[in-house]
Amino acid sequence: MPFNIAVALDQHGNTTSIDEPARIVVYQKKQDAWLAVQEFVYDLEQSKGVRHMRQKLAELVADIAKSSQIFVGLSVTGIPYFELEKAGMVIWEFEGRPAEFLSYIEDKEEEARLARDKMKPIAVPAPRQTAPGRFFISLKEVQENNAGITSKQVLFSFVNKAEFDQLEVVCNHVPPWLETIVLEKNFVCLKEQISQKEIRVTVSKK
Q1: For burial by CB atoms within 10 Å, which of 37, 84, 97, 143 has the most?
Q2: Residue 15 gets which letter from DSSP?
Q3: CATH 3.30.110 in the chain, residues?
Q4: Span 102-141, pLDDT tens digits
Q5: Fold category of 4-116 in CATH
Q6: Helix 50-67 / helix 78-86 crossing angle, nearest 10 deg
Q7: Which pTM value belongs to this model?
C-alpha cells in the first residue's frame, strides 16, 4: 500500500516542530526510493496572535492533507496535533533525517493495517448516564484493541456539544485531542492514576 508522508524539516534537513517556521516536504516511494514530490514553506506567524496562528495552521494542514496520509514532526502537540488529527492524518514524532525513518513508518503502518483487517469489530461505546448531568465512559477497549475505531470518533462529538455537567472517562492514556478541547472550552479537568495502565479523567464545567 503506497504512502505519501509529509515531514516538517528545518534548514538543515532535520525534523522540526510544526509550530516553528520551516518547510513541509512530501515524500513518495517510487521503485524502492523515497522521493520529494511536493514542498510547502510556512510560518504560522505566532506573534500575530492565537486566532491568526490557528487560521494559518488550518490552511497549512488542509494543504498537507490533500496529498499525504501521514505527518512526521520532531514534536507534535497541542493545537497542531488537534488540527492534524481532525484532518484524518496519522501522526508520528521522530528526530533526524527522513531517510532514517520513512521506510520504518511505512512498515509499521502496513503492519497496523493488516492487524486491523484481522480484528473482529468491537461495539462502539457511548457515554452512560449515571445521574442527572453526570456521565461515564471507558475508552480502554478502544485504546487496547486498535480495531479501526479511535477515542476521538467515540467521544469528540459528545464533549464538543458539552451537554453534561460532569464526564468521567477511564482510559489507558489521556487522548491529546481531549486535553486540547478541555482547554478550548475552559472545562475543569482532574486526572487520577488508578493503576499503571489505567487513568480516571473527570471533566466538569466551571
Answers
A1: 84
A2: B
A3: 128-204
A4: 999 999 988 887 876 776 666 678 899 999 999 999 998 8
A5: Nucleotidyltransferase; domain 5 (3.30.420)
A6: 40
A7: 0.63
